[in-house]
Design goal:
With 116 residues, the protein is of the alpha/beta class. It has a single domain, classed as STAS domain (Transcription Regulator spoIIAA, 2-Layer Sandwich), CATH 3.30.750. It has four helices and five strands, in the order E-E-H-E-H-E-H-E-H. A five-stranded mixed β-sheet has the order 1-2-3-4-5, with helices on both faces. Strand 3, helix 2 and strand 4 form a beta-alpha-beta unit. The longest helix is centred in the middle third of the chain and has 16 residues.
């Protein structure tokens, strides 16, 4: 399955919308997008995972490495709208306590997007 990734930035914040499956084969696509994005220096990144059907340990490692890099520069990485299968992986691995997890995309990102 193909992985689709789109990024929008506004005032030092970025939202990364991901859809499809994140696994061993598609994780490099997400990793390269994070590498490109983090070079721009955002302070807050929200990953909209409402379109992600599946995420394995490779995908979680990509998210963790992005979180680590953002934290090193005083930033934050948050996960928004994970589907039940992804939420379960976050809970089972304990990563739901590592990441800030939102039920939906935070309102300020939706406002910035509509102005954008």
């Amino acid at each position: 399955m193909e992985l689709k990734v789109s990024t929008r930035s506004h005032d030092g914040n970025a939202i990364v919308a991901v859809s499809g499956e994140i696994d061993l084969y598609t994780a490099p696509r997400l990793q390269s997008e994070f590498t490109r994005l983090l070079d721009e220096g955002p302070t807050r990144v929200v990953i909209d995972m409402s379109g992600v059907d599946f995420c394995d340990s490779t995908g979680m490692n990509v998210l963790l490495s992005a979180l680590k890099r953002l934290k090193e520069h005083g930033g934050a990485l948050e996960i928004a709208a994970p589907r039940p299968a992804v939420r379960k992986i976050l809970q089972v691995t304990g990563l739901d306590s590592v990441f800030t997890v939102h039920e939906t995309v935070p309102q300020e990102f939706l406002i910035a997007e509509s102005q954008g």
